[in-house]
């Protein structure tokens, strides 16, 4: 595979698999234990993770350069911070041990995702 960055392919594939697993976990096990608002937040994390897993796979298949590598890195970090902090917040709140330090991490992850998308738009504008 010439000029293809396998890192976003691997990370995107792993994020996709984890998203399916956590989505099923939410639909079956958590549905009985979580408040509806917490379940909705958990599902938001799962959806955003899957959307961005697909983006990472797409980015990995594109001819590579430093700009796309930076976009993929920012998206990878953003997913980790955004989705996984949501999982931690909702699960810890469900089991009465809320990890409050995760609260500020979620918007940082969201900013990384927005910045990644903006960088991608800029990349396309400069083709």
UniProtKB/TrEMBL annotation:
Family annotation (InterPro entries): DUF423
GO cellular component: plasma membrane
Bilayer topology term: Multi-pass membrane protein
TM stretches of this protein: 6-27, 71-89, 101-125
Signal peptide (residue range): none
Keywords: Membrane, Transmembrane, Transmembrane helix
Keyword Lipid metabolism applies: no
Localization (cell): Membrane
Official protein name in the record: Uncharacterized membrane protein YgdD (TMEM256/DUF423 family)
């Amino acid at each position: 595979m010439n000029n293809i960055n396998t890192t976003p392919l691997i990370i995107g594939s792993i994020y996709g698999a984890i998203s399916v697993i956590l989505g099923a976990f939410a639909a079956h096990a958590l549905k009985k234990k979580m408040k509806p608002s917490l379940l909705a937040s958990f599902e938001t994390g799962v959806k955003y993770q899957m959307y961005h897993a697909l983006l990472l796979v797409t980015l990995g298949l594109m001819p590579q350069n430093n700009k796309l590598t930076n976009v993929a890195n920012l998206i990878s970090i953003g997913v980790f911070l955004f989705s996984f902090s949501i999982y931690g917040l909702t699960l810890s709140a469900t089991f009465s041990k809320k990890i409050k330090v995760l609260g500020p991490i979620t918007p940082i992850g969201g900013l990384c995702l927005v910045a990644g998308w903006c960088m991608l738009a800029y990349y396309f504008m400069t083709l």
